[in-house]
Design goal:
heterodimer; A: 141 residues; mainly alpha; two-stranded antiparallel sheet; 7 helices; 57% helix; 10% strand; B: 93 residues; two-stranded antiparallel ribbon; 2 helices; 12% strand; rod-shaped
C-alpha cells in the first residue's frame, strides 16, 4: 500500500493494532533488490520513509528496479549513502529476503499486498481489514 | 513513365489555369519531413526512457509519509503491546 489506510491508522493510533510490513520478492530481480534495500533502510531507522518512497516510485513487473534506482530513492529519503550503498552492494539481506519469501509462500501468499490480522488471512481491502480488526478485538484474540 | 509524363502534363495544365496542385515533389518532401519528425520523436522517447531508467538520475517522487503520531519501531508501526497484529506482505517492485 502506498499510504496507510485510514482504518489501520485509526486502530494503530488508538493503540489497538500494530502493523508490520514484511517485504518479499515475487516479481523478479527488482523485487529482490528492493526488499533487500528496505532492510538497509531499516538499519538506519528509515524503513517507513523508504517504504513510502518505494511505493511512490513503483515500476511494476515490466520495468525492474535497479540498484541505481534504489540508491537514488535512498538519497532522496535522507539516508547515509555510504552506509546504504555498502549495505545494498554487499547483498547482506539476500538470505533474509529469500527466507521471508519462502515463509510467505508457505502461508499461501501468492500476490501482494497480502494481509493477515492476528494470523488470519484477510482480503486486502479497507473494509475487510477493518472488520477483521473489529472481530479480533471483540473475540479478545 | 506514362504516369509521370501524365502528371507533368496535368501540372502544366494547372499552372496554365492558375491552379497549383501538390505534385510528386511535394509528396516526397512531405513524406521525408514526416519521416524525419517520426525518427526525431523515436530518439526523444528512447532518450527520455533511458533517463527514467535511471543510471544517471531520473526523477524521484518523494511522498509525504503521513505517519505523524505513529510509533515506529523498525518495520512495525504502532504500540508493541497492541492486542491486534496486522502483518502485510509487500512486494516493492
Amino acid at each position: 500500500m502506498s499510504e496507510l489506510p485510514t482504518v489501520e491508522r485509526t486502530f494503530i493510533l488508538s493503540g489497538k493494532a500494530k502493523l508490520e510490513v514484511k517485504p518479499i520478492a515475487i516479481l523478479g530481480a527488482g523485487s529482490i533488490l528492493a526488499a533487500q534495500a528496505s532492510g538497509c533502510a531499516n538499519e538506519q531507522g528509515l524503513f517507513w520513509d523508504y517504504h513510502h518512497i518505494l511505493y511512490a516510485n513503483q515500476k511494476g513487473k515490466r520495468q525492474q528496479q535497479t540498484a541505481d534506482d534504489l540508491k537514488r530513492y535512498a538519497a532522496a529519503s535522507g539516508h547515509d549513502m555510504e552506509k546504504f550503498n555498502s549495505c545494498l552492494d554487499s547483498g547482506k539481506y539476500a538470505t533474509t529476503v529469500s527466507n521471508e519469501t519462502d515463509a510467505a509462500t508457505q502461508l499461501g501468499v501468492t500476490s501482494t499486498p497480502t494481509i493477515f490480522v492476528n494470523g488470519r488471512k484477510v482480503q486486502s481491502t479497507a473494509d475487510a481489514v477493518g472488520q477483521a480488526i473489529q472481530e479480533a478485538l471483540a473475540s479478545g484474540s | 513513365m506514362h504516369i509521370v509524363s501524365m502528371g507533368a502534363r496535368i501540372r502544366k495544365r494547372d499552372r496554365r489555369r492558375g491552379q497549383v496542385r501538390p505534385g510528386p515533389g511535394w509528396v516526397y518532401l512531405a513524406a521525408a519531413t514526416l519521416a524525419a519528425v517520426a525518427v526525431a520523436a523515436a530518439f526523444s522517447i528512447v532518450a527520455l526512457s533511458g533517463r527514467s531508467d535511471g543510471d544517471s538520475g531520473g526523477q524521484v517522487v518523494v511522498p509525504t509519509p503521513g505517519l505523524a503520531g505513529l510509533v515506529r519501531d523498525g518495520r512495525v508501526l504502532g504500540q508493541p503491546d497492541a492486542p491486534v497484529s496486522i502483518v502485510e506482505y509487500a512486494d516493492f517492485q
